[in-house]
Amino acid sequence: MMFKAVGDGRPYPDHGFVSDRDWADVPPRQIRLDQLVTTKSTLDLRHLLASDSTFFGDLFAHVVSWRGDLYLEDGLHRALRTALQQRLVLHARVLELDDDGRPAPPPG
């Protein structure tokens, strides 16, 4: 199985991170594809196959960690490219949310 599950929507509360600038302070880390739950069930193949699909915007996928699950919020095309290249790990910015949906303070 490529992903842990395929979802359709965000089950977690709104966290307020909407722009790449909001996500910029979240450090990237490696995430296994089989740990991710997608928040989109469809993908535009033109976007997946475009050579400049990551040219604009963040180079890293955006993942939300909430209540023990990792939700792929943005970067489905990156995750699929990773899988098509037979890699198991994706570099992503992981936003940790507490049970109430508030961003958890960074460690340290």
Automatic annotation (TrEMBL):
Name this protein carries in UniProt: Type II toxin-antitoxin system VapB family antitoxin
InterPro entries the UniProt entry points to: VapB-like_prob
Pfam families in alphabetical order: VapB
